[in-house]
């Protein structure tokens, strides 16, 4: 009898403890849930429409970057990729700053015909030139110094310059007279560019003398004559500062290069040096040698860049001569430049001049 009573007491105690634990746990959980700190979160959720728009935009950007521009010409042009080449580590070709090189070497050209009395200056063309040697050799385009209509050379060329950078928008000043010394005799075949109608668009000038105070060219061109102190940026102890050529650089697709020239602005003026940065988009193979020849640069160069400089920013060296500006199949402009090695071979062929020796 006593055993049964003991069992009942133990069962009752166990049940009571279970009820007490269950009640305590429930109260503790409810109390903890009610006192839990509120966490503030910010989550951006894209709707299906927004997600679709972002995806479409990304695809368009990729297509725009990878698309090869098409030259708007009367005939097709074969644009080949530039072969990837292994070459030595790029070294700077000058101890001068990039700004100093531009200031002293990238000049503006006005070429035309002065009458005997120097009272009129006609048949004027305007472009860019590059001083490439200490004795004053200037590299530019043939179409700046030669009149295709009359088939005559423009006898009178003048060198102008404005400071770079030109924050105050100073107009160019007139510095020198220059004469055309060499240019290819092959006639220009078309105003539009194609590999079938390509012609050797380069010329060499030589700086002759400073502009004398008796000259009237400043009145004819509408620019001031350079002051004696202005010449310090271009000359150094009777030698000309010049843009050194980078003879080691070998181009490949997507390399970033800089073009420099006296391009026109929104007001159609070309009063200062402007620069554009763009990547190599391809190589136009003229003589089927598969070597870099005519480089196509994706950049926003404008009219006036003809005869301008194509620069490797890593070495600060000249690697090409700007010759054409052409529209592509997407918004923007594409700069066509004669690559350094191809230019050298053409100059040897047409002018019997060695570009490498010309600079020395």
**What is the count of β-strands?**
17
The ordered string of helix (H) and strand (E) elements is HHEHEEEHEEEEEHEEEEEEEEHH
Q: What profile does the largest beta sheet have?
A: 6 strands, antiparallel, barrel
Report the structural category.
alpha+beta
State mean pLDDT (0 to 100 scale): 77
By CATH reckoning, the class would read Mainly Beta
In a nutshell, what does this entry contain?
With 360 residues, this protein is an alpha+beta fold. It is built from 7 helices and 17 strands.
Question: What labels would you give this structure?
Answer:
6-stranded antiparallel beta barrel; Thrombin, subunit H; 24% helix; 28% strand; globular; alpha+beta
Describe the model.
Residues 17-77 have low confidence and may be disordered. With 360 residues, the chain is α+β, with helices and mostly antiparallel strands. Strand 3 (121-131) and strand 4 (137-140) form a beta hairpin. The chain has helices at 2-35, 48-66, 98-105, 142-145, 217-221, 340-351, 355-359; strands spanning 79-80, 106-114, 121-131, 137-140, 146-147, 152-153, 156-161, 173-182, 203-210, 235-236, 239-240, 256-261, 274-284, 294-298, 309-312, 317-327, 333-339. The protein has a six-stranded antiparallel beta barrel with strand order 12-13-14-17-16-15. Strands 2-3-4-9-8-7 form a six-stranded antiparallel beta barrel. The longest helix has 34 residues, at 2-35. It contains seven helices and 17 strands. The radius of gyration is 35 Å and the shape is globular.
């Amino acid at each position: 009898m006593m055993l049964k009573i003991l069992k009942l007491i133990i069962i009752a105690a166990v049940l009571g403890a279970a009820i007490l634990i269950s009640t305590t746990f429930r109260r503790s959980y409810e109390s903890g849930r009610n006192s839990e700190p509120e966490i503030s979160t910010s989550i951006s959720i894209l709707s299906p429409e927004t997600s679709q728009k972002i995806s479409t935009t990304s695809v368009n950007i990729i297509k725009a970057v990878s698309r090869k521009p098409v030259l708007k010409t009367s005939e097709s042009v074969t644009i080949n990729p530039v072969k990837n080449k292994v070459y030595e580590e790029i070294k700077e070709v000058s101890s001068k700053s990039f700004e100093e090189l531009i200031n002293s070497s990238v000049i503006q050209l006005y070429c035309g015909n002065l009458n005997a009395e120097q009272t009129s200056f006609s048949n004027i063309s305007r472009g860019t030139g590059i001083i490439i040697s200490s004795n004053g050799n200037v590299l530019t385009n043939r179409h700046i110094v030669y009149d295709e209509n009359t088939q005559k050379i423009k006898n009178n060329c003048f060198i102008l310059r404005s400071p770079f950078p030109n924050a105050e928008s100073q107009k160019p000043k007139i510095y020198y007279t220059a004469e055309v010394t060499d240019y290819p005799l092959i006639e220009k075949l078309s105003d539009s560019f194609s590999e079938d109608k390509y012609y050797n668009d380069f010329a060499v000038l030589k700086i002759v003398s400073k502009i004398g105070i008796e000259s009237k060219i400043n009145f004819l061109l509408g620019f001031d004559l350079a002051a004696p102190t202005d010449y310090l940026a271009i000359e150094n102890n009777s030698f000309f500062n010049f843009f050194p050529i980078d003879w080691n650089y070998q181009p490949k697709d997507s390399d970033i290069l800089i073009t420099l020239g006296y391009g026109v602005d929104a007001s159609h003026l070309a009063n200062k040096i402007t620069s554009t940065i763009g990547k190599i988009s391809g190589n136009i193979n003229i003589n089927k040698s598969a070597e870099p020849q005519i480089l196509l640069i994706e950049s926003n160069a404008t009219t006036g860049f003809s005869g301008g400089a194509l620069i490797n920013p890593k070495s600060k060296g000249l690697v090409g001569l700007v010759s054409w500006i052409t529209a592509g199949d997407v918004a923007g402009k594409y700069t066509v430049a004669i690559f350094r090695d191809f230019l050298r071979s053409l100059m040897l062929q047409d002018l019997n001049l060695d570009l490498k020796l010309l600079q020395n």
